[in-house]
Specification:
Helix content is 79%, strand content 0%. With 225 residues, the protein is mainly alpha-helical. It has one domain. The relative contact order is 0.13. Belongs to the TVP38/TMEM64 family.
């Protein structure tokens, strides 16, 4: 095991410890806490929300509270834009961290056939695979960020796929939060639900593709160049 590989493994382990410790020790804010903090920043409320959301979504905790807060604080349109912008910045930060810290460890892991199979699936339909996975609500946002960091999907397609895949459910949650709390326009909620249903169909299709690729015998997977 080379020095670079050991350093990468130690770096990834340290990052995991920090993230898990923060998730356990730091309290998850409730809606009232977020609302007070964001509104207290006045003209900087948009920037404050983005900074808080990006920081929180680096941790393995649900991001739903931030999506709800976006709808309550900013309405369906601005709230959706801010929530999706926060996701884009968050996934960018996660990928840069993982690839900077763990590059050597990832290169060594590529020698494993199963890992190459996953890499192959992501390379063949990389951004589409990320798009489909982002549409599955039960997959934690931050954990998928770090998983993408271990893949070779380019940064920009991964970010675009994250925003596109997260958009249907995010817009639906933002709109419903605005309707329930602020009495917003119900028609916007109807449109977002229709988008979420369309996204669910794509999710099923893409998930089947990924499972098919992962079922390939390890010996038939071509090594990555």
């Amino acid at each position: 095991m080379g020095r670079d590989h050991r350093a990468s493994l130690l770096g990834l382990a340290a990052l995991a410890v920090v993230v898990l410790a923060a998730a356990v020790l730091l309290p998850t804010p409730d809606l009232d806490t977020i609302r007070a903090g964001v509104r207290g920043s006045g003209a900087l409320s948009w920037a404050t929300f983005l900074v808080l959301m990006v920081g929180a979504t680096q941790l393995p905790v649900p991001r739903t509270i931030w999506t709800v807060a976006a709808g309550v604080l900013f309405g369906p349109v601005v709230g959706s834009v801010l929530a999706l912008a926060g996701m884009a910045v968050s996934v960018t930060l996660s990928l840069v961290l993982v690839r900077w810290i763990g590059g050597a460890a990832v290169r060594r892991a590529e020698q494993a056939p199963r890992f190459r199979a996953l890499q192959g699936a992501l390379e063949d339909r990389g951004w589409v695979a990320v798009l489909g996975l982002r549409m599955i609500p039960v997959i934690p946002f931050s954990l998928l960020n770090y998983a993408c960091g271990l893949s070779r999907v380019p940064l920009l397609p991964c970010v675009v796929a994250t925003v596109a895949g997260s958009a249907p459910l995010t817009v639906a949650v933002v709109a419903s939060s605005d309707v329930v709390v602020n009495g917003g326009e119900p028609w916007f909620l109807g449109v977002s639900v229709a988008l979420a249903a369309a996204g669910a169909l794509l999710t099923v299709t893409e998930w089947r593709r990924i499972r098919t690729r992962m079922a390939v015998e390890p010996g038939t997977v071509k090594p990555s160049p």
